[in-house]
Design goal:
Layout: H1 2-10, H2 13-27, H3 34-47, H4 51-59, H5 62-69, H6 80-93, H7 195-205, H8 264-284, E1 293-294, H9 302-308, H10 327-336, H11 346-353, E2 364-365, H12 367-371, H13 389-402, E3 410-414, E4 430-432, E5 442-447, E6 450-454, E7 469-473, E8 480-488, E9 501-505, H14 506-510, E10 516-519, E11 521-532, E12 543-553, E13 560-564, H15 571-584, E14 590-599, E15 605-613, H16 620-627, E16 631-635, H17 644-656, H18 661-669, E17 671-675, H19 680-684
Parallel strand pairs: 1-2, 6-8, 16-17
Antiparallel strand pairs: 3-5, 4-7, 5-6, 7-13, 8-12, 9-10, 9-13, 11-12, 14-15, 15-17
Helix pairs in contact: 2-3, 2-5, 3-6, 5-6, 6-13, 8-11, 11-15
């Protein structure tokens, strides 16, 4: 009990227990009395459940005594009961600290409508980091199964609630306000008049890349509906919709095997025009466009020159540090791009990325998003975790506390205070994250090959840390670097069950292998000693943080690599993908319309797509069949940190506009309304 624990401390028993434990440990050479030794440890564990016990334990050199005692036990599996209990005591008594940031609030703030300015940051250094009655239900660290205290609000158990409601949930006349979302119901399909005219106009239209559509959907209060009609009424001839985007795409026939192939000459012409379009956009609306530079290539460019430019050894001058590449280098890169990545064009990507509005006002392009990537050449099994790895990582953290001789503690990257970081120090990695979807707030070199990393919270928030995506360079070859992301929040993670992060190597990409690959070993996820006060933690007292730790051997010396939580999928990737899909669909069969659902708070258009089959003709029956098709709504990327949703949506879109017979049938049966990215600002700002 807590009262007995306090009584034991006040009577000086804790020091006696430590001496008893040391005596048994030294004399039980044959390990015949493991349970007596563990019994003494359990007494210490109960006593250290109270704050007074933890303070006395630290003052009695308990951390050093227990840590030293188990160093010769780690290789003996029979001693696991001892090692586990000691590790639990050490982790619990590790003094709580605030995160090494000025404030736990996000580095990015955004003034919301109705607020004069963004909320002030709350400091992370206030308040208690201990609570006197804190008790931890510690379990075996390698089989940790901490139950979430949160309610399973998303698990539905009442089957009746899952059934469709028989009645409308709003008056039928209110459906009129959604008319602006369904312009296809009032489309007159004049393009069906004459196939020969269509083919001629298509030839004319292939010469220029369509500019990004900006059909803004008005609210119900701001628009009347003179052309509104119910589904069962035929569409009358109203003349072409002035907002309707023309089909400017040559016909393409797709099969499953060859998803997307276009004439490289046409592609080059299109991409040049795409760049011109982007330039013209800049002229029209400077607020919508800005200059972007590609992140620099690896420093030692000799291998690159030899591979790509044997005729000219002085063409590329390696950029010192992390300076962005010149436009000449980008042009040379684009000429060498093989164009073998389905549904991706670096030219289209640049044109879209220039229009993106971000809170940090990004000036840099991350190489993987610009260059694109191919799927891995083989499937990879889940990572098998070595026995004891989690416990060993916890003990390694404790070693940093009690044996700090090799601890460096140097900040090498800081989003909040760029002047306080010291990148480019000898033997030190260089970090960067100020690009679209990037997230890394701070990097601290703790030991020669070990770095503590801190993620940035959601905009205007002090919590929600999960997504990370950053660049690292200046690495040595075949050296295992350890990275610790120290401000994770969830109780447990798939990283404890075989999941790996993903890595992209620029050198590999330029040698013809542009791939995100699963990477990392000794991966685990566990509670650490960092905490924040109730004021800083959004009202949660003594909120704890968790560490995701992993080690990586980089494939090349002085490479530029990118590490991410999952395969990144940026807003610009999505917008350029839509451009390419629209260009490569068959306009005779696929009705495609792209509107803007709304402008986000950050000023970026949120696209709304309509995909269905063109009616067979302008006959009344065909048009009625078109208008009476049921709607299917699809949405993705509600949570911006879950990029897997965008990859599912990408495949869905590619399938829906393809020539697959099932896709053709789906289009004839349904009208698909698709919001491929419901939270663009969250995706853009990482």
């Amino acid at each position: 009990s807590e009262s007995n624990s306090r009584r034991a401390v006040n009577r000086g028993y804790l020091g006696g227990l430590l001496r008893l434990y040391q005596d048994w440990h030294h004399n039980d050479i044959s390990n015949n009395y493991i349970y007596i030794r563990r019994g003494l440890l359990l007494c210490l564990k109960h006593i250290t459940n109270v704050q007074l016990g933890r303070e006395t334990f630290l003052g009695s050199q308990g951390m050093e005594i227990l840590f030293t005692s188990i160093q010769d036990c780690l290789l003996c599996k029979n001693l696991d009961p001892i090692i586990t209990t000691v590790t639990q005591i050490l982790r619990k008594c590790y003094p709580k600290e605030p995160l090494p940031v000025a404030t736990v609030r996000s580095s990015y703030s955004f003034p919301l409508p109705g607020n004069a300015k963004a909320e002030p940051p709350c400091k992370g250094s206030e308040g208690d980091y201990e609570s006197d009655g804190e008790e931890e239900a510690e379990k075996d660290l390698d089989n940790e199964d901490v139950e979430s205290k949160e309610e399973d609000y998303d698990l539905e158990t009442d089957v009746n609630k899952l059934r469709s409601r028989p009645m409308l949930d709003q008056p039928e006349e209110e459906l009129g306000q959604y008319e602006a979302m369904c312009p296809e119901l009032s489309h007159n399909f004049q393009e069906l008049e004459s196939e020969s005219e269509e083919e001629k106009s298509l030839e004319d239209r292939t010469e220029s890349l369509p500019s990004t559509p900006s059909h803004f959907i008005p609210s119900a209060t701001s628009v009347k509906h003179p052309n509104y009609r119910w589904r069962n009424q035929s569409v009358t001839e109203m003349g072409p919709d002035p907002r309707e985007k023309d089909f400017k795409i040559p016909q393409q026939s797709w099969t499953k095997k060859e998803k997307c192939r276009w004439d490289p000459i046409d592609e080059k012409r299109d991409t040049v025009e795409a760049a011109q379009d982007a330039d013209s956009c800049e002229g029209e609306d400077p607020a919508r466009s800005h200059t972007l530079t590609l992140r620099s290539l690896p420093k030692e460019a000799a291998w690159y020159k030899k591979m790509f430019y044997p005729e000219c050894e002085t063409l590329i001058d390696p950029s010192p540090g992390g300076k962005p590449e010149s436009s000449d280098t980008v042009t040379n890169l684009l000429e060498k791009h093989q164009g073998d990545i389905p549904f991706h064009s670096p030219h289209f990507y640049i044109a879209e990325a220039k229009r993106v509005k971000s809170i940090p006002d990004y000036k840099d392009l991350a190489f993987p998003d610009f260059w694109g990537h191919q799927p891995p050449p083989y499937s990879k099994p889940m990572l098998e975790r070595k026995y004891g790895v989690q416990r060993n990582k916890v003990l390694d953290d404790i070693r940093r506390l009690i044996q700090p001789g090799d601890v460096i503690g140097r900040t090498v990257f800081d989003l909040d205070e760029p002047s306080h970081s010291s990148p480019g120090a000898p033997g030190c990695l260089t970090f960067f994250s100020k690009f679209e979807s990037g997230n890394l707030r701070k990097a601290i070199q703790m030991r020669e090959f070990e770095y503590d990393l801190i993620m940035n919270a959601d905009v205007n928030s002090n919590q929600h840390h999960q997504w990370f995506y950053f660049e690292v360079r200046d690495m040595k070859l075949a050296v295992p670097y350890r990275f610790n992301i120290i401000n994770c929040e969830k109780f447990n993670s798939q990283f404890n069950y075989g999941m790996q992060l993903v890595m992209y190597s620029v050198k590999e990409a330029l040698q013809g292998r542009p791939r995100w690959l699963r990477a990392g070993h000794d991966i685990c996820y566990y509670k650490n000693h960092y905490s924040c006060s109730a004021a800083a933690g959004g009202g949660v007292r003594g909120k704890c943080y968790y560490t995701l730790t992993f080690s990586i051997k980089f494939p090349h010396k002085d490479d530029v690599c990118y590490l991410a939580y999952h395969y990144p999928y940026t807003y610009s990737t999505m917008m350029s993908h839509l451009d390419i899909l629209e260009q490569n669909r068959n306009p005779k069969k696929v009705y495609w319309r792209q509107q803007t659902l709304c402008q986000t708070l950050g000023g970026n258009p949120c696209p709304l797509l309509t995909i269905t089959a063109m009616p067979d003709s302008k006959k009344r029956d065909d048009l009625e069949q078109f208008c009476n098709r049921p709607y299917v709504f699809l949405m993705a990327r509600v949570h911006p940190g879950e990029s897997n949703a965008s990859w599912v949506m990408k495949g869905t879109l590619e399938f829906l506009v393809s020539s697959d017979p099932i896709a053709d049938l789906l289009r004839k049966c349904f009208i698909f309304k698709i919001v491929p990215m419901l939270n663009p600002d969250g995706v853009i700002n990482g």
